[in-house]
Write a structure and sequence with these properties.
This protein is of the alpha/beta class and 326 residues long. The protein is 30% helix and 23% strand. Helix 4 runs parallel beside helix 6 and helix 6 runs parallel beside helix 7.
């Protein structure tokens, strides 16, 4: 459904003086394919480029270089009207914090009806009926239609945000850390809702998170980002069960597990700057396996089948054992 090829995103930022502007390399040479009906997890620590990649996938950010293909056509050479109607109705977005993503002065019914009004879907009666269907779809009672977002709990607000993303019956949902602003007790409910909606509606989904242990059970495929680059990609079982890039292994070790005894990896060394990224592997300044060759050029992709990584010293036989996926 979506294909990114060699996508770069660079922002201009003032630094080092009033008239000096540096380029912030938010995304570098990113290539990714999103197929219909699958869940792709994007994982990495804060500042790695996950949200920038999400904005590119949703058409909110045009790439500086590279192409974004939508059903085989370049998204940014499409006429604006077609991009709004065809692409805009095919991709829904769930933002991180529902308390800021929803207009606090609008009742829930108006929030859910807004996309239908903008895209002129159906008659007045059909739009009202669709709002009722959306509330039922996300497990909210019908009287919620009259509530303001401030009268709802955090979990209920996020359900409203999910319902709004589903209003136009999209094929793909991009969820940017949709549970990070919620209490721990509510997160599992929202995750289960997303899994259930995927099964019932055949939705594709891009799920963005810094918690690789959560995403590994939700996603079909994982892509690991570091400093704007995709450093490892493959099925969730391969990437999380047998990680080949040292950074992926470090991410897995950072999250406690009740099922395995994982050795904690503490990273040392300087974090590279996004305005002046190193010429080689961006992780080489913190990697315990790095040598001089790692700092010369970004490694070409290696791997077998769908499991690929960019590392010249991969974790071929990691100590981390594979975990059950059920």
């Amino acid at each position: 459904m979506l294909r990114l090829e060699g996508v770069h995103v660079r922002h201009r930022a003032r630094s080092g003086g009033l008239f000096r502007r540096d380029a912030v390399h938010a995304l570098t040479d990113a290539s990714l394919e999103i197929r219909k009906g699958e869940i792709v997890g994007l994982v990495g620590e804060s500042g790695c480029g996950k949200s920038t990649l999400a904005r590119v996938l949703t058409g909110l950010q045009a790439p500086t270089e590279g192409t974004v293909g939508f059903r085989g056509e370049n998204l940014w050479t499409m006429p604006g009207a077609r991009r709004r109607t065809e692409f805009g109705s095919s991709v829904g977005v769930v933002f991180q914090d529902p308390s800021t993503a929803l207009n606090p002065r609008m009742p829930v019914g108006r929030i859910l009806r807004d996309p239908l009004d903008v895209h002129r879907r159906g008659t007045e009666q059909q739009r009202a009926q669709r709002v009722e269907e959306l509330l039922d779809l996300v497990g909210l009672p019908a009287h919620t239609v009259r509530s303001l977002p401030g009268q709802l709990s955090g979990g209920q607000r996020q359900r409203v945000a999910i319902a709004r993303a589903l209003a136009l019956e999209p094929e793909l949902i991009v969820a940017d850390e949709p549970t990070s602003a919620l209490d721990v007790s509510v997160r599992a409910q929202v995750l289960n809702l997303l899994v259930d909606l995927r099964a019932r509606l055949g939705l594709g989904m891009v799920f963005i998170s810094h918690d690789i242990q959560t995403v590994r059970y939700l996603a079909d495929r994982l892509a690991v980002l570091y400093l704007g680059r995709i450093v490892e990609e493959g099925t969730a079982a391969e990437v999380a069960g047998t990680p080949s890039h040292p950074y992926t292994r470090a991410l897995l070790s950072a999250t406690p597990s009740l099922l395995t005894d994982t050795e904690r990896i503490v990273l040392t060394g300087p974090v590279p700057s996004a305005t002046n990224p190193p010429p080689g592997c961006p992780f080489s300044t913190r990697c315990w396996k790095a040598d001089d060759a790692c700092g010369t050029a970004f490694p070409a992709p290696s791997g077998t089948g769908a499991h690929r990584w960019h590392c010249i010293h991969p974790e071929i036989h990691p100590e981390l054992p594979a975990r059950r996926t059920s």
